[in-house]
Design brief:
The protein is an alpha+beta fold. The chain has two domains: about 1-95; about 100-205, 2-Layer Sandwich (Alpha-Beta Plaits), CATH 3.30.70.60. It is built from five helices and six strands, in the order ααααβββαβββ. A hairpin with a 6-residue loop joins strand 4 (about 175-185) and strand 5. The longest helix is centred in the first third of the chain and has 65 residues, at about 25-90.
């Protein structure tokens, strides 16, 4: 059947008129505008506001991370300042460290110290022996090395005892391996034999 638009128009015209009249009602118009506003807002939230919120969230997280890094750096700076202050306080006494644990064996200085110590305590230095050591030795790791030495002294018990006590109190790190007293024989007096080792730091390679 052929389509007659005039006939069909008259048939459905009242529906178009009714819809127009329906929209002109206040309630319908208000609700329609609200729905359209919600749909428009949702559209902008999804396509415009959401990326902005994501960017803001990322910036907030980045600011927090930078604040944490800044706090850590400030702590390190404060620690370095404190260490610098401590170093300044002990800088004038650093030579004591070198005397306690010298950077080489310093055998000849050690021998001189033992001779002076024997003189001050009133004992006679009978013999002094030390183990061979590489004076220019280098090592890949900086760690303490030792000079083994043996010393024999003669004198009274009190003086030998004073020497032994003074040897332990020397500023240089010295460890006693052992010591023994024995009588000198018919000449009187005592002999003190001491085995010990003196520590030093070899130069780092």
């Amino acid at each position: 059947m052929a389509f007659n638009w005039q006939t069909e128009f008259h048939r459905y015209r009242r529906y178009f008129v009714d819809i127009g009249q329906f929209y002109r009602q206040k309630k319908v118009r208000v609700y329609t505008e609200i729905v359209l506003s919600i749909l428009t807002t949702a559209f902008f939230l999804f396509f415009a506001i959401k990326p902005t919120l994501v960017t803001i969230t990322g910036l907030i997280r980045e600011i927090k991370d930078k604040k944490l890094v800044s706090q850590k750096l400030e702590e390190k700076i404060n620690n370095l300042n404190a260490a610098q202050q401590e170093y300044s306080n002990v800088q004038n006494d650093l030579y004591l460290v070198d005397q306690t644990l010298p950077k080489d064996s310093q055998i000849f200085l050690l021998m001189k110290q033992l001779e002076v110590l024997a003189f001050k305590t009133g004992v006679s230095l009978e013999t002094l022996q030390y183990s061979p050591v590489n004076l220019k030795g280098e090592t890949e790791e900086k760690k303490p090395s030792t000079v083994d030495f043996k010393i024999v002294l003669g004198g009274s018990y009190e003086n030998l005892k004073r020497f032994l006590g003074s040897l332990i109190k020397l500023r240089r790190v010295i460890l006693l391996d052992g010591f023994a007293f024995k009588t000198r024989g018919t000449t009187g007096g005592l002999i003190l034999s001491i085995s010990a080792k003196a520590y030093f730091l070899k130069e780092e390679k």
